[in-house]
Amino acid sequence: MTTLLTALEVANQEFRRELRGYHRGDVDDFLDRVAETLQQYAELVQEHERRWRASEDELREYATQKEALQRALLLAEQTSREIGEKAEREREALVAEAREQAEKILAEAREEAQGAVVRLRQGEEDAARQLERLVCLRRQAVAETRELLSKLGMVLDAQEKIARSSEAAWAVSPGACPDPAKPS
Hints:
Elements: H1 7-11, H2 24-170
């Protein structure tokens, strides 16, 4: 098998000289370009090898994970069946217990409802008596307010008579003070 040239070997390659040989600068430029290209290819190959190895590692990891997942799936299916059977037994027991409790709760609720109806009726009677008392109090307050307003009106009328007689005694002309009832 032939050994592959490295970019460094191409760049450092020396040729023998002959009289009618190639132009040395052209050969050197070409060798430099070849060396750069080889270097790029070498780097590309290394990168691809690195990716290939990483891909192989990932594939091995995925294969391991696949096996683990298959085992877990089988175990999960088996566990699921067992849990389902156990859940069915527990459900039947719970349903029976729930029926018993529901019957007990219904009986207690009926008794409580009957008591609530009695209390509600008593509350209605109490509310009716309270409403009647409040209506009486409102009527009384209205009557007292009317009486106070009537007395206040009489006091205001008396004060107005006194003020008029004072104005007449002092001879104050009616236009001297503005009337508060009229807007200015």
